[in-house]
Amino acid sequence: MTRSIKFLFAALIAGMFLGAPVQAQDKAPKAADPPKAVEPEHKNGQPKADGPKAEKKEEKAASEGDGSEYEYAKIATSKGDIYVRLNKTKAPISTKNFLEYADKKFYDNTIFHRVVKEFVVQGGGFTTELKEKETSAPIKNEWKNGLKNKKGTIAMARVAAADSATSQFYINVQDNEALDYPREAGDNAAYAVFGNVVAGMKVVDQIRQVRTTTKNGSRPDGKPIPLHDCPAENVVIKSIARVSKDEAEKAAESDK
């Protein structure tokens, strides 16, 4: 298959899939859909994307700390641990947002609700009972930060509106170049990468191999929502927590 044909195929998948790296979705993304954050009647009971709030203040806060370019976190799952390095210099808003959800234990006992073997694994929005969680306000889309949707990167899932990402994230299981290009239909924006896996890609590969099906989920208000490409057996995110650079590097070394 030529590179141009592969790209066109990826673009089609992104158009369906990236329409929003999956947060819940009224129109659940198909196997070839971009990562969508399941879109409720008004985006999963989530606040509407009225635009980023206090962007400059958020960016400044995310850049403060130990002075390094990165933050690190461990995603503990029922399949094993995944360590990620988050680029708080190039993606300060997304990094701060992700860590804030982690700090308040929002991600504890949620699931990877969408797994597309040759695309992405997505989670961070549904409980083990398949109920979508209430989230904070959406954030600004940092897709112009220079970070690309390469294999092993972590990025924000969203619905059709450009600035609509909340808690859901996805990990690219292959290079997904189509996700780096603005969607011409609708929001004219791409998908924001904010870090990469430094240890645990073997775990990600295990997750991508699980059998999937369509399940009946529910929105925060109880209304039903179909979850396509959902693991037949829950892949649980036990917790997500900050870790030190040393811990992440040790994990990376032992992962070789």
Mean pLDDT: 82
Helices and strands, in order, run as HEEHEEHEEEEEHEEEH
Strand order of the largest sheet: 3-4-9-7-8-6-5-12
Q: Which oligomerization state do the chains in this entry correspond to?
A: single chain
Task: Report the total helices.
Answer: 5
The coarse silhouette is: globular
Strand proportion: 25-35%
Structural class: alpha+beta
How does the major sheet shape up? 8 strands, antiparallel, barrel
Radius of gyration, in Å, reads 16 Å
How many DSSP-defined strands? 12
- Give the termini distance in whole angstroms: 31 Å
Helix content: 10-25%
Low-confidence stretches: 3-32, 39-66
Overview of the molecule:
The chain is of the alpha+beta class and 256 residues long. Helix content is 21%, strand content 28%. The protein is built from five helices and twelve strands. It has helices spanning 3-17, 55-63, 92-103, 201-208, 245-254; strands at residues 23-24, 37-38, 70-77, 80-87, 110-115, 120-127, 153-156, 169-172, 193-199, 212-218, 224-231, 236-243. The strands form three sheets. Strands 3-4-9-7-8-6-5-12 form an eight-stranded antiparallel barrel. Strands 1-2 form a two-stranded parallel sheet. A two-stranded antiparallel ribbon has the order 10-11. Helix 2 packs across helix 3. The radius of gyration is 16 Å and the shape is globular. The two termini are 31 Å apart. The relative contact order is 0.23. Mean pLDDT is 82; it is low at 3-32 and 39-66.
